[in-house]
Design a protein that fits this description.
mainly alpha; about 290 residues; single chain; two-stranded antiparallel ribbon; about 5% strand
């Protein structure tokens, strides 16, 4: 019975991690940015959904829409206020811009985290479930929201795959990740492409944050853990590899779930970090990474 519970819980959290990590990978693959404010954006989406659904009385669906919209807006602010000014600055040497962007997004994420803690305290907040109730699977009682989390995560991942592989806009994104200079020679504006890819990233991070808030609950204290988990997943899977990120998400998700059930939730991230160190030493490019 416990094994089945681990399989169900692990699948749901792994699917959720996969959705969040794909957004993280998308930003790096297209614009070359490792966004260290990732966890802050996810938590903001969940907190906004909690406030809108409860305090403003718009219900779970109104809260969900508002939370995702907040994540998109915050993602675009991250690009416009932090990333783009650094990338276009003539005062920063080209070879130093990457570390400046890393530092900038890290500090921006900390600012958001502290703002959330100041305005709403660091106590965990649970988003109202989109579908209440429980379902019994082979004797294991499982919340309907947990099943919905896995379903929505994979539906969104599937829609993203269709966007990237079956539309003109998706082909532009692929071209931007492979040869951005060649894309500019064809008349495309890279800043405009980056703007829309950050909006898409915000959508993915917002949905992931919303689902996480309804599944497990979130607080400002989760920001660092969520960013670290996403970073661990993309490094394990290979930077820039969507397939690798999905594989990494399930490795991390199940490893955390098994650890939480056997050793306690407080140490669930330790085996993942040890695995990450091992991967960095043995295969620095990750499972499916090319560099």
């Amino acid at each position: 019975m416990k094994l089945l519970q681990i399989l169900i819980d692990g699948f749901a959290i792994s699917s959720l991690y996969g959705l969040g990590a794909i957004g993280f990978t998308l930003i790096f693959g297209v614009s070359g940015v490792l966004n260290l404010s990732h966890g802050s954006i996810m938590v903001t989406a969940a907190i906004a959904a909690w406030v809108i659904a409860g305090d403003l009385g718009l219900g779970p669906y109104g809260g969900a829409a508002g939370g995702v919209a907040m994540a998109v807006a915050l993602s675009l602010l991250t690009y416009m206020l932090v990333v783009r000014p650094i990338q276009t600055s003539s005062r920063i040497a080209r070879e130093e811009k990457e570390i400046f962007v890393l530092t900038g997004t890290l500090l921006w994420g900390i600012m958001i985290q502290e703002a959330i803690a100041y305005l709403f305290t660091s106590n965990p907040k649970t988003v109202r479930p989109l579908i209440p109730g429980v379902i019994e699977i082979l004797g294991v009682r499982t919340p309907m929201q947990e099943i919905l989390t896995a379903v929505i995560s994979w539906v969104v991942i599937g829609l993203l795959w269709l966007l990237v592989n079956r539309t003109k806009a998706g082909k532009v994104l692929l071209a931007a990740s492979i040869n951005p200079r060649g894309l500019t020679l064809l008349g495309f504006e890279l800043p405009q492409i980056y703007f829309w890819v950050w909006a898409l990233y915000g959508l993915l991070a917002g949905i992931a944050g919303l689902l996480l808030g309804a599944f497990l609950g979130v607080s400002s204290d989760n920001v660092g853990q969520l960013t670290a988990s996403a970073f661990s997943i993309v490094v394990l899977g290979g930077l820039g590899s969507v397939t690798g990120s999905l594989i990494g998400a399930y490795v991390v998700g199940y490893l955390e779930t098994i650890t939480a059930y056997s050793g306690g939730p407080s140490i669930r991230t330790i085996p993942v970090l040890l695995l990450l160190v091992l991967v960095v030493y043995i295969r620095p490019q990750g499972l499916l990474g090319r560099r």
